[in-house]
Amino acid sequence: MNTSLILLIVLIVGLAAYFAGRARAMASSKGKLSALHSLPGYHGVYVAIWAVLPAAVVLAVWLIASPFFVESAVRSSLPEAVRSQGGATTELMLGQVMQVANGLKLLNADELAAVTSGSSNLRDALAAKGVPMANAGEAYMVESAQEYNSLKDGSRWAMSAVVLIIAIAGAFFSIRGISAPFRARNRVERVMLGALLLASSIAILTTVGIVGSMLSEAIRFFQSVSPSTFFFGTVWDPRFSAAGSGGTEGQFGLLPLLAGTLYIAFVAMLFAVPVGLFAAIYMAEYAKPAVRGIAKPLLEILAGIPTIVYGFFALVTVGPFLRDMSAQLNGLVTGNYVNFIQAQSVLTAGLVMGIMLIPFVSSLSDDIITQVPGSLRDGSLGLGATRSETIKRVILPAALPGIVGALLLTASRAVGETMIVVLAAGVAARMQLNPFEAMTTVTVKIVNQLTGDLEFNSPQTLVAFALGITLFAITLCLNIYALYIVRKYREQYE
């Protein structure tokens, strides 16, 4: 019985339990709702919760724990000659056994008997079913695979029986407790409160897990590379010399990557903030409802375009346009048609990223500006101020905390961008102030260091986690500063 069918049966039991609990509540009150402490629906929900929730928890735990126990049992059944070769060999053989087990399910009874007796080759039989094997397989693999399938099937049938028994038992015992004075509403609300607390804690637990995983690997990196060398180094060259060559280690200087990240984000914000903010002011204060109803959705379409598309746009259109335009300008001024803007440059990446960020600035700022009380506008206009003076001296100061928060949120989005930078700014890690030349960012180097079939056992790969925790710290500082600004100006205008 597969998991989907089990869940469907449990939900059917829960639905039946709901109507049974509701009917028992009505029967206990003899049709008088005033005699019930809680409405009949609460009694039905209470019974349904006891029918579904414990069964669902057991099902989830069983699905998580069962593979570990089954694989452990099969692993221990492997021949001693295999297990004595070490953990890597054992896991490799276990993987092949699981592959054979999946293939054996495709064989009919005669084919399985032929393979078991040895009269048929295991690899040929599985290859005929579309399950290729690298070798012919050992004799013990068929036996271990059959044991694996047997344990797995037995576990699934046992899980189905236990889950259904728990669902029915939960419904039965909860129905027995239904009576007119029973406080079903309080019990249901307590369960709902627990569900809300669990949902709200998922984000916190996820953040803790992400930080913990990055921090643990970053600590391993800093055991090989000095933190001072990483945080204050000015050269990024994460290459190691070949063994015995006598060369020096690569260098892991963060400053070139950090400079590129902040520089490109600054150029993007320099373009996105004025355009987005002016667009928000126009749509909130000047545009007619019909124009606003068309312009705002069209502007927000930009937020739904994948960043890789923006990267292609920068690579194919914006970068060559800026390069050719610089050559033409240089030719008109000096007579030498040599471009001074590279196709992959800080300006290209910042300009395209700024286009991507415009809907973030405009949409958030527009929502914040429209939330400013109309009494402030009416009071300012009533005192003789013009509309532009009202916007500049009343509306924008009142909306400033929210706008600052929106801008810092946009800045965090710019700092974490990857694909646009890869295609529009290049991968050159260097420190320079010329926006017409290529630079790169922290996120690009994280991708580069983790590209390919690599193991996390060398500084070349572990440095990605140090870069990731650095980005997290930068974003955290931006959020803290945003909170400080919001609180400061909120006290001023409230």
Describe the structure.
By secondary structure, this protein is mostly helical. The protein folds into 2 domains: 177 residues, no CATH class; 257 residues, Orthogonal Bundle (MetI-like fold). It has 18 helices and 2 strands. The longest helix is centred in the middle third of the chain and has 39 residues. About 2% of the residues have low confidence.
List keywords for this structure.
two-stranded antiparallel ribbon; 494 residues; mainly alpha; 75% helix; 2 strands; MetI-like fold; 2 domains; single chain; 18 helices
* Structural domain tally: 2
Trace the largest sheet across and list its strands.
Answer: 1-2
What would the principal axes of the Cα set say about the shape?
flat
Largest sheet: 2 strands, antiparallel
* Average pLDDT over all residues: 81
Poorly predicted regions: 241-248
User: What's the CATH first level of the largest domain?
Assistant: Mainly Alpha
Give the SSE string: HHHHHHHHHEEHHHHHHHHH
As a percent range, the share of strand residues is under 5%
- Amount of helix: over 70%
Number of helices: 18
- Assembly classification: single chain
Topology overview:
Elements: H1 3-28, H2 40-77, H3 80-83, H4 87-104, H5 109-117, H6 122-128, H7 139-176, H8 184-222, H9 227-232, E1 236-237, E2 251-252, H10 255-286, H11 289-300, H12 307-334, H13 346-370, H14 374-382, H15 387-415, H16 419-424, H17 442-449, H18 459-493
Antiparallel strand pairs: 1-2
Helix pairs in contact: 1-2, 1-7, 2-7, 2-8, 4-7, 8-18, 10-13, 10-15, 12-13, 13-15, 14-15, 15-18, 17-18
